[in-house]
Specification:
single chain; alpha+beta; 3-stranded antiparallel beta sheet; 5 strands
């Protein structure tokens, strides 16, 4: 299972959807990146393959990052993947 995390400005937690195949995850990633590049203030709607009733919609101009990660079934770290880890 592949997770696509979408980081939204001024939002502390990422929005995420899952895809079963790497190709589908890469297609969603590329769709988001192209939408960010175009600069159009459009709404991006996504559904989740793991939980079909899960739907998200985000204004693309508010997206500040996107990430793909693969969930390994054997190891769970107890925290979601992210861009930065801060230690104090």
């Amino acid at each position: 299972m592949f997770t696509i995390d979408i980081i939204v400005k001024y939002t502390p937690v990422p929005l995420s959807v899952q895809r079963k195949s790497a190709e589908d995850a890469e297609a969603i990633y590329q769709q988001i990146v192209e939408s960010i590049r175009s600069g159009n203030p459009q709404i991006l709607e996504l559904t989740c393959e793991k939980i079909p009733e899960k739907k998200i919609a985000v204004v693309i101009s508010e997206v500040s990052g996107v990430q793909i990660s693969q969930k390994s079934g054997a190891a769970a770290t107890g925290r979601p993947p992210g861009f930065v880890s801060v230690a104090q």
